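Most newcomers find our protein records easier to grasp once they have seen one. A record pairs a protein's sequence with a compact description of its fold. An example says more than a description, so a record of this kind follows:
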Amino acid sequence: MGLFRRGANDRDTASVQAADDVETAGAEPTPAQGGSEAEVGDDAVLAEAASSPGRPAPGGPWDVSEVDGPGRRLDLGSVWLPGVVGMELRMEVDKATNQVTGVGVTLAGSALQVQAFAAPRTDGIWDEIRGEIAESVTKQGGAVDEVPGPFGRELLARLPVRTPEGRTGHRPARFIGHDGPRWFLRGVLTGAAAVDPERAATLEALFADIVVVRGTEARAPRDLLALRLPGQRPAPAVPPAAATPALDP
């Protein structure tokens, strides 16, 4: 069963599926299949974001209705991203559509990949998605445990990878999620942050201070909310009816 699907602007690409969750949970955020990464190397932009004030109250990530503008967060469309001194920002871009499909932050040997999705008006989707991710990881030869975390229940996974010698190894990853009002934010922690709570603290605080801008238009659950590069103008709206159904992995 597919985990997520692209938004209307990404209708020519494959859906974000359970298999993609395994692929994107490497040492660094991995672009969508057939995609690429755009590094954001503007030191002034990142320095400004890194001076972002603390989150307004415990309990984030936040909905746009809960904050007074982006402040010093980076405006990436559906995600307003706080900055951390020394971080490297990578935007995942689908080559087929030139659409930004994910945000990646690397910092001191760890990485956090973030994506925001539409969700039903009444029920959250993280409980259901955790089960689908766990099933996918297990089918591919990995192992996964559901454990409590700072954002509620999360998954600690050992993902199967191919070593340079051609052998099968395992790489740790943490899948975290937060159900907001009509949206869902997923994060994947890899590298040292996947196994060391102290090394994870900075990226966890960054995740907790993200603001999600869902928009008011009707969207099918699990549609990927549109992202854009820093400073890029919003893309013209595309009718939600143009979205394609999710595909099985």
Q: What stands out?
A: DSSP finds four helices and twelve strands in the chain. The CA atoms of residues 8 and 242 lie 6 Å apart.
